[in-house]
Write a structure and sequence with these properties.
The chain is built from 13 helices and 16 strands. By secondary structure, the protein is an alpha/beta fold. The chain folds into 2 domains: 135 residues, Enolase-like, domain 1, CATH 3.30.390; 228 residues, TIM Barrel (Alpha-Beta Barrel). The protein has a 7-stranded parallel beta sheet. A 5-stranded antiparallel beta sheet has the order 3-2-1-15-16, sandwiched between helices. Helix 7 links the parallel strand 7 and strand 8.
Length: 376
Amino acid sequence: MLNIDAIYMREINMPLAHPFETSFGVTTSRRILLIELKSEGLTAWGECVAGEHPYFSDEMIDTAWIITETELAPRLLDANLQHAGDVPDLLKQVRGHRMAKAALENAVWDLESQVKKVSLASLLGGSREIIPCGVSIGIQPTLEKVLEKIETELNAGYQRIKLKCKPGWDSHIFEAVRKRWPDILLSCDANSAYRMKDFDHIASWDQFKLLMIEQPLWYDDFYFHSMLQKRIETAICLDESIRNRRDALAAIDMESCQIINIKVGRVGGFSEAIAVHNAAAERGIPVWCGGMLETGIGRAHNIALSSLPNFSLPGDVSASARYWAQDIIEPEVTVSKTGEIMVPTDIGSGYGILRDRIEKLTVRKQMLRAKASVTA
């Protein structure tokens, strides 16, 4: 039995080590919702990856806070849980709000791994001891800066370079990178910045031998991605479009993509992430783990998820130091010179929590107990 005694909601504000630009805009700092569960002397953590604005998805930190406080957390506090996998059914009456749900569910998985005295990765069904890592490079002020960033990451050992792109910032960048590094594993991510009028333009990218083109069209589309995939040789990877196992099956059957990016927050938690992973594996579609500018808490969860067998492509689970001057876990996530992360085998996530640092970064906090709540 997993009895939740209390749930602490915290908003922390963390400045990024470097600005990160996508087709949505520039991010220089993050407002992050952390979930802390207390259960019979144990403490478990989850992270909500919703952004400051509803640009990547229709969620944002403020909506996640409200829905967690008023709807989701009370259900969890009053539940008789046998397994973390019970959480999705417990919360299903609330439609949507997958990132908020994921923060709670993932914390329960963390708790269960501690109760059972196993690693989080093994509890999820992971079998990999090492995961390959890639990096996502945001839109830069100049081409020269892009090349400089890529050289830095390649020297650090990362196995795949992903370039954020948008109309006007694409072909000439890919051409310059390929001229400099003809053989590196290279991909791009459009975050839904293109439309049907761009099909011929996107088709011209076949010459750059990209590993994949990630989410080039509408964030909620399968049909037009299917049309585009039939026009090009380069694999399309779907990200925002895949909300659950049903979406993955639909996209695969429609031949909308050849690769799927799994973000545990986007699909609503570990249970659905495993279901998407399994659906893709059954149909021979490789998957990889995407990033959402997480702190070490969310990053540790991504590492555990990436240990599942069909995560066969380098993901965006890179080192803490690429994003934060100081993370909130210890040890910080590091990447080897060959671009790999060792999957922790210790009980739980395998990383300790820097509580004092979290307290210093906290700007609001709420404690919830069964049938009652107290503002701290």
